[in-house]
Design a protein that fits this description.
The protein has three helices and six strands; from the N terminus they run E-H-H-E-E-E-E-E-H. By secondary structure, it is α+β, with helices and mostly antiparallel strands. Strands 1, 2, 3, 4, 5 and 6 form a six-stranded antiparallel sheet that branches. The radius of gyration is 16 Å and the shape is globular.
Length: about 160
């Protein structure tokens, strides 16, 4: 269903993802988001086939992560993603990582990415078919609540 957020499995927490505190280390949360976003990119039309056929890929310009609960060795994880905005060559989306069995949010990340030609290593515009697909998904995802965490800045105090 187009009006539902995109969901995917992000696997399970691996033993080598555990830090000295006995929970998943910060870097591995980004690994889990990366594993989950591969299929989201395919869904959007900018995944592996796009990279192979068009010679382009998405590069991260900025991200903001937040953490809500621990994930432990062996915990199953899933992810949801919501396309927030895009323009001719950039895209902004928001993903949440969950403990898949408990359906408790463990972390969230907001990503700002740019479309890059892998030969020139320069930003290029999305092709019309991709822009059309992004608009279809953005329109559907805009019916969902805008993530409260999106666009936040880090602050302490008032």
């Amino acid at each position: 269903m187009e009006d539902e957020l995109y969901t995917s499995s992000a696997g399970v927490v691996k033993p080598d993802w555990i830090d000295f505190n006995g929970h998943m280390t910060i870097a591995r949360y980004l690994d889990a988001f990366t594993e989950g976003v591969v299929s989201f990119y395919d869904y959007l039309g900018v995944g592996e086939a796009y990279r192979r056929e068009m010679g382009c890929s998405l590069f991260v310009l900025e991200n903001h992560s937040s953490y809500q609960r621990e994930l432990l060795d062996g915990d199953p994880i899933s992810m949801s993603s919501q396309l927030l905005a895009f323009d001719k060559n950039k895209m902004r989306y928001f993903s949440r990582l969950y403990h898949a069995e408990k359906q408790e949010q463990a972390a969230a990340v907001e990503m700002f990415v740019i479309n890059v030609d892998l030969t020139s290593r320069r930003a290029v515009d999305f092709p019309p078919a991709v822009l059309e697909r992004l608009e279809t998904v953005r329109k559907a995802h805009s019916k969902r609540p805008f993530p409260a965490e999106a666009g936040r800045a880090i602050a302490l105090g008032t």
